[in-house]
């Protein structure tokens, strides 16, 4: 390593630490090396070195809200609750 070094102390879940140590060991490195890689990549990219997204049901909801705002993928109008339920239950 070039330059002077320093130490850092962080708190994390014990199980996460153990699993990460096992993963990094299988990759031929220790936790310190992995964290240094992460930090250097963050500096190079000027941000997190991976995409941060909301996945799962929340992302589906957000997409549907965007579609509604843009008046796309709109169904209806429904004149009865039965019509609405039939549309919701159809497989596309």
UniProtKB/TrEMBL annotation:
Keywords: Plasmid, Toxin-antitoxin system
Xref: InterPro entries: Arc_rbn_hlx_hlx, RelB/DinJ
GO biological process: DNA-templated transcription; regulation of DNA-templated transcription
Ranges in coiled-coil conformation: none
Pfam families for this protein: RelB
Superkingdom: Bacteria
Keyword Cell cycle belongs to the record: no
Residue ranges of the TM segments: none
Sequence similarity: Belongs to the RelB/DinJ antitoxin family.
Name of this chain's protein: DNA-damage-inducible protein J
Organism: Selenomonas ruminantium subsp. lactilytica (strain NBRC 103574 / TAM6421)
């Amino acid at each position: 390593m070039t330059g002077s070094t320093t130490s850092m102390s962080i708190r994390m879940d014990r199980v996460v630490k153990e699993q990460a140590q096992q993963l990094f060991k299988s990759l031929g490195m220790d936790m310190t090396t992995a964290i240094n890689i992460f930090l250097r990549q963050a500096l190079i990219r000027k941000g997190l070195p991976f995409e941060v997204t909301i996945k799962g049901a929340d992302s589906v909801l957000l997409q549907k809200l965007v579609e509604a705002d843009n008046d796309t993928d709109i169904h209806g109008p429904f004149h009865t609750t039965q019509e609405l339920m039939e549309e919701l239950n159809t497989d596309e």
